[in-house]
Amino acid sequence: xxxDMTRAALIxxxxxxxxxxxxxxGNYRLAIGLLRDPRHRRTLSAFLADHERHVDELTxxxxxxxxxxxxxxxxxxxLLKLGFQAASAIGDDRLVLLAFRGxxxxxxxxxxxAAAAGYPPPVDALVQANAADEARxxxxxxxxxxxxxxxxxxxxxxxxxxxxxxxxGTADLLExxxxxxxxxxxxxxxxxx
Length: 193
What we know:
78% of the residues lie in helices and 0% in strands. It has 6 helices and no strands. The protein has one domain: Up-down Bundle (Ferritin), CATH 1.20.1260. The chain is mostly helical.
């Protein structure tokens, strides 16, 4: 565990990742329902199973550390992400996948930052594995969009990437504030350590 990290901070970080995966569950279910291509629906269903596994594993780990897992989306940023995905509902798989890539970018980046945090071995192994899943999910949707001429270097792909980065930045700010609140709450409930 990083030198200055308390058990409360660790539980808060894991709780934030739990909420991040819960955010993803709603986005995946919506995207799967909107996609017309059965191959893409199957792939997203497999990725959804990864997120369900993340939720289960993080829930168990938070309990083992003495925390109380809350398997719910972030508020209000979880709703923002769902709205971003729903905005693609005009029936075009390309737009659904562009919005999906935007949401997946934030999950991938958030997990990458957590993977670089240097948690204790059992926690680190789980975070590293989940971060690898998220990188794989993002790489898949990026390849599919590039194959359809919608890479980030194209006008529509680049425009959606810029919007998704703004969206991710807003979600990160809201979620960071929530994580700080969780750290404070756990410190009050439990002695440091």
